[in-house]
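User: Second chain of the day. Same drill as before.
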Amino acid sequence: MQQRNYIKQTLIQGTLIIGFMPFIANGAVIMDSVAEFSNTQGQNDWSYGYYNGDLNAYTPGDFELMTQFSASTWSVQTGTGGFWTSLTAAGGHPNGLTTSGGRQSIDHWAVRRWTSDSIGTLTLDGNLSKSNFSGGTGIIGHIFVDGLEVFSQGITGTDGLGVNYSFDINIGIGSIVDFAIDPNLSNDNSDGTNFTVVGDLAPLSVPAPSAFLLTGLGLTTFFKRKKHSQQN
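Assistant: Same format as last time:
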């Protein structure tokens, strides 16, 4: 009760305290593909999978989870009879119709998926480049937000520098952001790729209203700003 009284008094004085919010506070890094990489699907809001063209060909609706984790790498099936399709902390590798090493001849896009538990404008900063830049037809990196493509960039087979990208997206609770590595021209030769991202949620611009609505722990209370009486 003392805590609620304190919050009520502070609101009446015109200072907004955000408590019991269902999303992470704004003005902070809320996604980091390298630092948050893990061996557990869904941990830190990240999932590791691929598009295989079976459902909604090479779109977010085609996403399937990878099932194997070993030596800091997510994969579908390794070795002869398997696929090159894999993801690491720094990037990944797709699979193509033109392949090698006894892998199956099929297009797979390696896809890192982030699911939002925040609301606001998110600035994405990252790098797309080849980690294996010995040749091949290169790759194409794609970013999808809630099913819509917002970024597409080709990287040649010998480009170890690639491109640095930075742009804003709008997100809500449950928004899905996919970072996909496409084997350009369906050829996965030397397609090891760096695809990193850090996401910084912009601070909310909060006006000074004459009333506040506080919702938390099942309690909804409406507070009005106290008017100061003029002294003669």
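The CA atoms of residues 115 and 176 lie 5 Å apart.

User: Great, on to the next one.
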